[in-house]
Amino acid sequence: xxxxxxxxxxxxxxxxxxxxxxxxxxxxxxxxxxxxxxxxxxxxxxxxxxxxxxxxxxxxxxxxxxxxxxxxxxxxxxxxxxxxxxxxxxxxxxxxxxxxxxxxxxxxxxxxxxxxxxxxxxxxxxxxxxxxxxxxxxxxxxxxxxxxxxxxxxxxxxxxxxxxxxxxxxxxxxxxxxxxxxxxxxxxxx
Amino acid sequence: xxxxxxxxxxxxxxxxxxxxxxxxxxxxxxxxxxxxxxxxxxxxxxxxxxxxxxxxxxxxxxxxxxxxxxxxxxxxxxxxxxxxxxxxxxxxxxxxxxxxxxxxxxxxxxxxxxxxxxxxxxxxxxxxxxxxxxxxxxxxxxxxxxxxxxxxxxxxxxxxxxxxxxxxxxxxxxxxxxxxxxxxxxxxxxxxxxxxxxxxxxxxxxxxxxxxxxxxxxxxxxxxxxxxxxxxxxxxxxxxxxxxxxxxxxxxxxxxxxxxxxxxxxxxxxxxxxxxxxxxxxxxxxxxxxxxxxxxxxxxxxxxxxxxxxxxxxxxxxxxxxxxxxxxxxxxxxxxxxxxxxxxxxxxxxxxxxxxxxxxxxxxxxxxxxxxxxxxxxxxxxxxxxxxxxxxxxxxxxxxxxxxxxxxxxxxxxxxxxxxxxxxxxxxx
Lengths: 190, 429
Prior knowledge:
The structure holds 2 protein chains of 2 kinds.
Chain A: H1 2-33, E1 35-40, E2 50-51, E3 54-56, E4 63-66, E5 77-84, E6 90-96, E7 105-113, E8 119-123, E9 129-131, H2 137-149, E10 155-161, E11 163-164, E12 166-173, E13 176-177, H3 178-189
Parallel strand pairs in A: 7-11
Antiparallel strand pairs in A: 1-10, 2-3, 3-9, 4-8, 5-6, 5-7, 7-8, 10-12, 12-13
Chain B: H1 2-14, H2 20-32, H3 36-62, H4 70-93, H5 99-123, H6 130-147, H7 151-171, H8 179-196, H9 204-220, H10 229-248, H11 261-277, H12 280-287, H13 291-295, H14 299-318, H15 332-345, H16 347-372, H17 375-395, H18 400-428
Helix pairs in contact in B: 1-2, 3-5, 4-5, 5-6, 5-7, 6-7, 6-8, 7-8, 7-9, 9-11, 10-11, 10-14, 10-15, 11-16, 12-16, 15-16, 16-17, 17-18
């Protein structure tokens, strides 16, 4: 009995390390081997720009226009590949139900579709949270509103995409990290 | 209790109720007993301490110190897991019997698992799916219950899987059926059995488990509602009847009505369902349903499984008790299934019979309360009648005078029955 308990305990400990360990390994793998894209953010929804200690990002590249509706269903799992537009921001290139055999792509699900031409498929971008130190949340909010009012400022997320998964590495305002901008503002204030 | 007796010993000697020799024997007996209440206090404080420290660490981690490098954040976040596992390893290897240590470290390790996953999600901005997070957390925490034989971890586990089922089935869009909930629930039941039934160890943890389990199943059964919602009433009626049947079994007897979760939830569930069914909306919807639509819905096999389980339990119960000695609500599911099929063609008849059934249960409850001289049960029966009248107050064409007279009659009934019972008790005293 004691041996079984000990064995179960060892298996439990290994499993408890396996989950965070795999999460770390997968994320690090995507960061070092994935393709880096800039995902431009739309103005933040004023009713819920922040949920606690993270910024909710609302990316523009969450849709793909197709020549026919192809019967995409809400909640269906899809594989999306990305390319960049003339300004250097990410945009969806292809959508498929089959996993691509090579290259970097994102596994996500369909949010909703339009039923009239032009047929559009809106999909989820599963990296819309950027965690910030709690004291910096309100300052980040102000910066966002500033960026929205000022058309010369551009906000985007730096996202590494590997086979199937993505890691949001940073949120940039005019090519500078939002954390860096806040730290500088705090230093000026002092 | 023991201290109270010891304090009164000198008074009892003076009054010549007991001799000095007996008093000495009583004192020796109680002094030789381990102090149960202080043990219990240690366990409670051990669990509370672990809970507070665990939740405190969660909050500190949530602050997200962005001056720390990634590796440092991960190291600090995963430290509670190392700590929790080390203490648990020590307890397992040393075969510690200290309930305080086992419960405390199990509670801490339970939260350490969540902290570990959360810190990685935070560092890599992994949005994840909250339902999946709860599922992984619970799956990784289940062995803690068995390895450390921890009742607290088991209670947290049952709460966690209930939260998971609600998150997936009620709070998310699109909603899922949370099938994994049933598997995880099945995996915790052996602990419930071994810990509390082998050796008949009915401590406070047993009561907490019974309450949580019954509430959890009652809440999560609704997650399975898909397109045949009408059929779910059969599943729920069978479930609540099964609870009442279980409460009648000797192994689940707690000696008091209020501490028997199966009886309270089961009985209230049956009555609330029947009162809901006494309105016409359910029966109107049922007439629009075809038998084919019923048999092809998810609710059909669910209803069959729960009804079969309730039937087996009833069969087992009736082998030890006669029909007259059994709580009448044990049969609610059989009666309702009959009414369900009548209602497919004659909804008005079923609706009328449901009203009569509620009345029958109420009368039976009052009779049962009077026989046992239990004021609580007796008034519960009267409350059922009042609730039935209140329900009819809204949807019948009775004149105000009739309704008024009915309320007066029930009010007088309340007074008269309670007065009679109290007088009877006084006479018996």
